[in-house]
Amino acid sequence: MRYSALKILKEGLTGNRGWKPVWREPEPRAEYDVVIVGAGGHGLATAHYLSKEFGVTNVAVLEKGWIGSGNVGRNTTIIRSNYMLPGNEPFYEFSLQLWEGLEQDLNYNAMVSQRGILNLYHSDPQRDAFARRGNAMRLAGADAVLLDQAGVREMCPFLDFDNARFPIKGGLWQPRGGTVRHDAVAWGYARAADSRGVDIIQNCEVTGFDIENGVCRGVETSRGRIRAKKVAVCVAGSSGRLMEKAGIRLPIESHVLQAFISEGLKPVIPGVVTFGAGHFYVNQSDKGGLVFGGDPDGYNSYAQRGGLPVVEDVCEGGMAIMPMIGRARLLRMWGGIMDMSMDGSPFIDRTPVDGLYFNGGWCYGGFKATPASGFCYAHLIAKDEPHPTAAAYRLDRFRHGAMIDEKGVGAQPNLH
Amino acid sequence: MIINHPLLGPRDAAEFVYLGDASLIDRPDWEDPDAAEKYYEYLYLRDNPAGLHRELWFHEQGDRSWLVVTRNTLTHEITNVELARDVAKAQGRSR
Ligand SMILES: Cc1cc2nc3c(=O)[nH]c(=O)nc-3n(C[C@H](O)[C@H](O)[C@H](O)COP(=O)(O)OP(=O)(O)OC[C@H]3O[C@@H](n4cnc5c(N)ncnc54)[C@H](O)[C@@H]3O)c2cc1C
Predict the structure, then answer these.
(1) Residues A185, A109: contact at Cβ < 8 Å?
(2) CATH-assigned architecture of domain A117-177+253-340
(3) Residues of A whose CB is below 8 A from B53
(4) Three-state SS for A80?
(5) Nearest residue of chain B to residue A252 (CA atoms)
(6) I need a labelling partner for A383 at 20 to 30 A (CA). Which of A92, A299, B39, B84 fits?
(7) What does the alpha-carbon distance between residue A100 and residue A85 come to, in Å, rounded to a whole number?
(8) Among candidates A291, A294, A328, which has minimal Cα distance to A311?
């Protein structure tokens, strides 16, 4: 069923009785060409691009809970391509370009809103670092504008420019960055993949792998054994615990990150704004809530909830740049489990087990990567060679010293 | 979270800095023939368990001692706290 303005009008006039479920609820079959483990944004995007771009349609996506129950439904919806290193920036720019055509590609309203992202700087050295980053972005074909204080004042007059400790001197502005309705991304990809015959199987937890002589032949699940020519894992925060079942140790720790939303307010914040001297970032949802977050809690966790010290730290960051936020009431807060890698960058690669593929290590930045991650993973699975923009995301890069460490902090996941 | 410090009693976890898996105590021998491979595993690979986890916390805003905390990563419940020095010595290290 195609969605269109005409269809909405017709359904509106006939009592909305013609809408159909957006995807099927199939029983798992005994065998598939490709089994994708994890129906988060990345798993569903992989299924979509496999079936659409690479002609592989005998595919199942297995999800232990329901679609969107993981980080794809918990993130703060920010998309951007303001990275610096050559291993990263072309990939994230490819992703941003896929976002720009996503709704037409999926025939689904994902509320892609390029309202821009503004990273504030507070000192001269930080301005120089941001100028360098902006140049790296532009070399990779992305957009970046270095604003001085007057430029930022025009855009965000409510900021505390003369803060005694961290005065705001300017910012790096990426106009094409913005936000996307995260749940709609999962639903849109699921609908598109399903329409091409992909089985999306919810409440089906993968509990083990069927590995014979170093070759993966399928998975064991809570709904029985499923054979597959290729098994593609992308379970984000659960990566360590699942890959352990295939005997693989990963350069990943699982950490909790919290997010917050205020009551609905009139439009006040034009795009995404980030604090450059502490960790705080904020945007305003279309319903008016201020969506914000900051640092991860900093210790290994699978609990999907964090502690109060981080709440305090995030709120202090908010008060430091926009004191007006202190008048808003907090509505909800939640946590998600992130797959923090040793250099802050992800993996899209084969594993030492033939037929078993791995996608993970997205840290707190994997939502923006969803389309390119799906595309590049599908490319790898279909052709057994990496997509050029994801060629640096090797699982064994630490063995060769080829880390992609944007922040330069070393093998310390809670600092990335 | 409250960490029951063996010397100082119950302390707020916010006074501590977290390093990670307590296996970081077991630094490989640099003279070992496969030192490169061992250091790769030591530095970069993690067990990352869901459940009991032994991990290193540093009492930065306290007595600056290193602790080995046994904590459940599914519930955040802390069941054991030891001085890292004692753990290392029990494993045969000189300090
Ligand atoms: C609070 C928070 C804020 C964030 N903000 C941003 C942001 O603003 N911008 C950004 O780019 N990124 C952000 N991120 C990161 C981003 O959300 C993640 O990197 C990304 O969603 C991970 O990919 P995914 O969507 O595939 O993961 P998920 O949605 O977590 O998908 C993994 C799926 O695998 C399933 N699964 C796990 N184990 C099994 C199993 N054994 N069998 C079957 N299924 C299994 C899970 O149930 C889950 O549905 C944020 C993350 C958090 C937690």
Answers:
(1) no
(2) 2-Layer Sandwich (3.30)
(3) 300
(4) coil
(5) B46
(6) A92
(7) 22
(8) A294
Q: Please give the interface size between A and B, counted as residue pairs whose CB atoms are below 8 Å apart.
A: 69
Measure the CA–CA gap between A61 and A40, rounded to whole angstroms: 10
Q: What is the pLDDT of residues A267-320, one digit of tens each?
A: 999 999 999 999 999 999 999 999 999 999 999 999 999 999 999 999 999 999
Q: Which domains does chain B have, with CATH numbers?
A: 2-90 (3.30.2270.10)
Return the bridge partners of A29, or none.
none
SS3 (DSSP) at A375 = helix
**How many CB atoms sit inside 10 A of residue A12's CB?**
9
* The CATH classification of domain A26-81+84-107+182-251+343-415, taken from the options 3.50.50.60, 3.90.1580.10, 3.10.200.10, 3.90.78.10: 3.50.50.60
Please tell me if residue B29 touches chain A, with a CB cutoff of 8 Å: no
Name the strand (E) or helix (H) holding A139: helix A124-139
Check residue A361 and give left, alpha or beta (phi > 0: left; psi -120 to 50: alpha).
left
Encoded amino acid at A20, one letter: K
Predicted structure pTM score: 0.96
Can you give the C-alpha Rg of chain B in angstroms? 14
User: What's the average model confidence in pLDDT over A185-189?
Assistant: 98
**Residues found in chain A:** 416
Question: Does A356 contact ligand 1 (Cβ within 6 A)?
Answer: no
Query: Domain spans of chain A?
Result: 26-81+84-107+182-251+343-415, 117-177+253-340
Helix (H, G, I), strand (E, B) or coil at B71: strand
